[in-house]
Automatic annotation (TrEMBL):
Domain GST C-terminal, first and last residues per copy: 84-221
Subcellular location, principal: cytoplasm
Source organism of the structure: Pseudaquabacterium terrae
Subcellular location: Cytoplasm
Domain GST N-terminal: 1-80
Name the UniProt record assigns to this protein: Glutathione S-transferase family protein
Pfam families attached to this UniProt entry: GST_C_3, GST_N_2
PROSITE patterns in the cross-refs: GST_CTER, GST_NTER
């Protein structure tokens, strides 16, 4: 198997961490997003979306992070993606919620629009409005995650055991820290994310994005 990825990519990190945690024999090929390699002819032939990650397994190809993570888990019969109908449905539900609710407003509406030039809006007024809208809604999703989806008792997103939803969700929630949040308003989220940070591969997998975050103007970005 080959995974095309970038270490600063939010959707790549869950895959790399799962691969490393489980010693899955996969070739990791960096696609340099910052130089625009993903927009070139060679990579667009691999993925016409011009996005990472992409997984190739022989002549089989997947181009969506959530689907790739599920495929990887099934390929090694991992308990992190439970086989029981209801248990698996809860993992799928949590991953869908992260992707369609939290990521939309925290990732694209609050973080990316501030830190990546190609996401910034064409006018200052549009930029301010976009960030204000995203920030308000992201805070709501983070509160729901803190009080209802996690709560004070659950060690992991889907209960007592680590699942691929935790790998997936940690990368998106960590974006709040990238723009300076200490997660003080979300103690259950912080407790859960701190647990994920104790995994032996965390520091290596998250080194690139943490280094990028250190270069951002601290205290000047809208956060949650």
């Amino acid at each position: 198997m080959k995974l095309y990825y970038h270490p600063a990519s939010t959707t790549s990190r869950p895959l790399v961490m799962f691969i490393e945690d489980n010693a899955i024999p996969a070739e990791l090929q960096v696609v340099d997003l910052f130089s625009g390699e993903h927009m070139g002819e060679a990579f667009s032939a691999v993925n016409p979306n011009c996005l990472v990650p992409v997984l190739e397994d022989g002549d089989f190809r997947l181009t969506e992070s959530s689907a790739i993570l599920k495929y990887l888990a099934d390929s090694i019969d991992s308990p992190a993606y439970p086989k029981g109908l209801k248990q698996r449905a809860k993992v799928n539900e949590m991953m869908d919620w992260i992707n369609t609710q939290l990521n939309r407003d925290l990732g694209y509406g609050t973080v990316y629009v501030q830190v990546f030039p190609h996401h910034k809006r064409p006018t200052d007024e549009a930029q301010r409005a976009t960030v204000a809208w995203g920030q308000e809604r992201a805070k709501r999703w983070m509160t729901i995650l803190d009080r209802h989806l996690l709560g004070p008792d659950k060690p992991y997103l889907c209960g007592d055991s680590l699942t691929i939803a935790d790998y997936y969700g940690a990368s998106f929630v960590h974006l709040a820290e990238v723009v300076g949040s200490d997660l003080a308003d979300y103690p259950n989220v912080r407790r859960w994310l701190d647990r994920m940070k104790t995994r032996p591969t965390w520091e290596t997998v998250y080194a690139a994005i943490n280094g990028f975050a250190q270069q951002l103007p601290r205290g000047q970005l809208a956060s949650v």
